[in-house]
Amino acid sequence: MARIVMKFGGTSMAGIERIRTVAGLVKSEVEAGNEVAVVVSAMAGETDRLVNFCREASALYDPREYDVVVSSGEQITSGLLAITLQSMGVPARSWLGWQLPIKTSDAHASARIEDIDTTALNAALADGEVAVIPGFQGVGTGERVSTLGRGGSDTSAVAMAAAMKADRCDIYTDVDGVYTTDPRIVPRARKLSKVTYEEMLELASVGAKVLQTRSVGLAMKEKVRVRVLSSFDTDMRDESGHRGTLIVGDEEIEESAMERQLITGIAYDKNEAQITLTRVPDKPGTVAGIFRPLAEASINVDMIVQNVAKDKGETDVTFTVPKAELARAQDALEQAREAIGYHRLLTKTDICKVSVVGVGMRSHAGVAAAMFDALAERKINILAITTSEIKVSVLIEEDYTELAVRVLHTAYGLDAEDAAA
Amino acid sequence: MARIVMKFGGTSMAGIERIRTVAGLVKSEVEAGNEVAVVVSAMAGETDRLVNFCREASALYDPREYDVVVSSGEQITSGLLAITLQSMGVPARSWLGWQLPIKTSDAHASARIEDIDTTALNAALADGEVAVIPGFQGVGTGERVSTLGRGGSDTSAVAMAAAMKADRCDIYTDVDGVYTTDPRIVPRARKLSKVTYEEMLELASVGAKVLQTRSVGLAMKEKVRVRVLSSFDTDMRDESGHRGTLIVGDEEIEESAMERQLITGIAYDKNEAQITLTRVPDKPGTVAGIFRPLAEASINVDMIVQNVAKDKGETDVTFTVPKAELARAQDALEQAREAIGYHRLLTKTDICKVSVVGVGMRSHAGVAAAMFDALAERKINILAITTSEIKVSVLIEEDYTELAVRVLHTAYGLDAEDAAA
């Protein structure tokens, strides 16, 4: 007998027919003798509908009232899944965030889970009852309803698995796992049986939108074994007979080092914009003067390139920010124009960040060099470079995205032997 | 300064534009120096949508989970109204049923309010904050979400007014008050400035669907002054300058006895069906034998006519039941066929119950006779008759409904001098 958390996203909960499919998957786990808690998202589109109501009511809505409104989407699906499970003969009940309770911080609309009381939950599981828990919600000080921010249901599931000391947290979604790259670009992309938390963090944050980054960080911290798999193609297995992708610690991957690739996957991200400040004084403190106003506006700066100094002690500074924050970044820099002393502010949005990720590169040199060679061979110009212990990223012209991803997927030997359907 | 409860129905809450209108009405009361609690319904159509989800999930849904699902409609509108009020500079917060709490019985999906804790509410009102309260919901044993049954928001508002010792409970709806009869049938129908609780109970239960019957009964018991008025035509006033219709105790009406009419209003109800059992043995106990199985199936029998005995000690028994329960009533009677010993079971659904209602008839004889005369003059056949202290009802062929209502409205002197627009 295992204790597991199953989490279902919005597309899996979109309508009673799909909820019945979900209930069937839950029933299978119960019949296999497992203790099961299920964490559910709102029906696809429902949270957007509710968020829009709040925005329409007031652009400056009270986040505490916003939480009352938007948390109802998961409340609805929790009750409906409990009813559906019961109708299949599986004892079940819903537990709202305030009922367990799931205690959170008071940062309404983006709260953090602080404590989950599992007393009632454990009693229910011991009685053979499935616990259905709305994701995304909790309760803050003064028993006010709170939510975790968009995509928070993955985090709810991992936190629940940690609190319950679950053997596994299965995240059901509309893809059957994590791939070596986007299969829409590379049909020969392979599903990965296992990735490490760190790899998943890098893959998720650079565009492989399978799991919310925050939930992967929490899983790593709490050592929760997470599996990503499809709620639609429930028979889909890889060559080794595994379903989905398991996300685990380094140590588990090392055990099967034989299979280990140097590079685990190729990710890309079109959500960055490039800013160049021209003719910035080339003296100590200038770079700090640029990034301080951005930090104060809570804008994340990613890739930074400081060009070699030109004549007259001046240089150009180039960096990237999320596209969604470009306007705010421009504002902040315009206001600091005199303090920084730059000549012009240039922006560029038709760019893409392509990254190769893999824990294997820790013990191997030459990964970056191989990347630059492969791109150079296809005449793909590199605008900027960043590296971490398990990742090398390059910034390129957006038009070259697909070509670059395909070239790198082949160069690192990731192509499957047979093309996927 | 007065303390008032304002209640808004589904059409008043259908979308942000209408919620803004509602917020404007609330703001006016606050600016007039009143302490205000607002009770809201779900957006029009939302509860139906949620109920259908539950039914689709399982015809035999768990009412506790149904309550979790359907209570979310009012949760949404509560948060949205609080946001809208704040955006107009009116301090406000939502209080969900479990937060106050509003304690109810455990009859999920049709719970009764048992106790409302007003401690937190009173503190909020004293702070000048508007309390926005979702109607229809409460919390039962074990902190499980409960609902009061369809139309329960009127009951929530009256219960809240009683618990808060409010000076008035204003029920805003899509009509501007209670009329002497349906203005779609009689354009010269007049809006009533005041009716008694008992009259309202009779008018509501026979078809004037302005207020949920249960809420009127509660208002009578708790002596809550209820006013029904429109949230749309907010300038509409009657000849005496009153807005809406006030529903109060007998004693308040007596004070203005000069204006008092013999009959307050004419109601009609097309939701009944007639059952006739032919050739039933005419002996003691037979009638009990007919109505016992119906009572056991919780089917309300309304009008009963036992025909004069024919030959051979047999008679026909005719009575009415709600149309919605006709099939179940037939089932129950088929099963008791041998015990009762009837010959045939005949049903008729094209019938209508027309009633004249008024506390004035207590002290006047001849009301029923005037009714029969007026109907006979127009050759309208009476199938059955029932009377109470303040009501006379007749059952007629459905086709004659409008004619009968008009004839009676004129006969009792209820027509306005000028036709309504």
UniProtKB/TrEMBL annotation, chains A, B:
The segment(s) forming the ACT domain are 275-359
Record NCBIfam families: asp_kin_monofn, asp_kinases, PRK06635.1-2, PRK06635.1-4
Protein name listed in UniProt? Aspartokinase
Identify the residues that bind ATP.
Answer: 7-10, 173-174, 179, 184, 209-210
One short Pfam name that applies is: AA_kinase
* UniProt keyword Cell wall biogenesis/degradation, yes or no: no
* UniProt family annotation: Belongs to the aspartokinase family.
Q: Which GO terms describe its molecular function?
A: aspartate kinase activity; ATP binding
Question: What positions does the entry give for substrate binding?
Answer: 47, 74
Which organism does this record belong to? Sphingomonas gilva
Q: Which residues form a coiled coil?
A: none
Which GO cellular component term is one of those annotated?
Answer: cytosol
Q: Which GO terms describe its biological process?
A: homoserine biosynthetic process; lysine biosynthetic process via diaminopimelate; threonine biosynthetic process
Metabolic or biological pathway:
Amino-acid biosynthesis; L-methionine biosynthesis via de novo pathway; L-homoserine from L-aspartate: step 1/3; Amino-acid biosynthesis; L-threonine biosynthesis; L-threonine from L-aspartate: step 1/5; Amino-acid biosynthesis; L-lysine biosynthesis via DAP pathway; (S)-tetrahydrodipicolinate from L-aspartate: step 1/4
Enzyme Commission code: 2.7.2.4
Write out the catalysed reaction.
L-aspartate + ATP = 4-phospho-L-aspartate + ADP
Q: Which UniProt keywords apply?
A: Amino-acid biosynthesis, ATP-binding, Kinase, Lysine biosynthesis, Nucleotide-binding, Transferase
